[in-house]
Amino acid sequence: MKPKHKNLLLIILIIGFLFYIDPVYAGPGGTIAKGLFKTWWGKLILAPLCIVLFPLIAYTYTVEYFAIRKSKKQLNALGTQNKEFMWLNLEKNVKNIFTRVYLAWEREDMAEVSEYMNHWYRQNQQTVYLDKWKRENLKNVCQLDKINSVKPLYLEITNDKNLEGSKIAFLISANIKDYLKDRTTHQIIQGKNVYGDEEKIWVLEYTEGKWLLDDIQEGTYSLTFAKLKNVVPEIRLHQGITVK
């Protein structure tokens, strides 16, 4: 292997190690935010990394900006057919679902949000994570301070006249506290007892006239979603507008 290739491989391995050294376990979706870069040493390491990775960071923000801009434009056009797709209504619904899910997660009872999540995903969260941690004498402390922003990254719109079955991937930034602790000793097993800004991708599906949480993925996949071409069938609206 050539020296320059070895150096490139070393940089990739170091970056990968830094981003994945702190395992993820809890929170909605089953993950605790990685805490390395929240420490003093982490921030010290992050500064030169930002300089090295600036072109990639700039590219990511640019792609996401145009994807979000296009998605909002298409949603407002679709909203003339179904008001639940108008951006202001949609943003309000997403924030409501986000808040309720965090409350249910903190109370360890996903049945509280049965009206806001699809059945399979709700059962997955309860059985795979919450019930498992109870058996292990662990509690997930998952508290939401505030929602910073909600941005539509990717649309999959159906041909149904009421747009039933359509899905939207949202990039959500929020200030949260998320950690696992022992129920008896209260010792923190994973994460930190501090609030911090985190990004997640929430996928919502429009089913029977309401929005339901269908999946949660890490915010690190935002560029992947932003690069996807929105699936929006051409719909001739009453005003003569064509959604493309």
Automatic annotation (TrEMBL):
It comes from the Bacteria. The chain crosses the membrane at residues 45-68. Residues 71-218 form the Tim44-like domain. Keywords: Membrane, Transmembrane, Transmembrane helix. This is Tim44-like domain-containing protein. It comes from Winogradskyella sediminis.
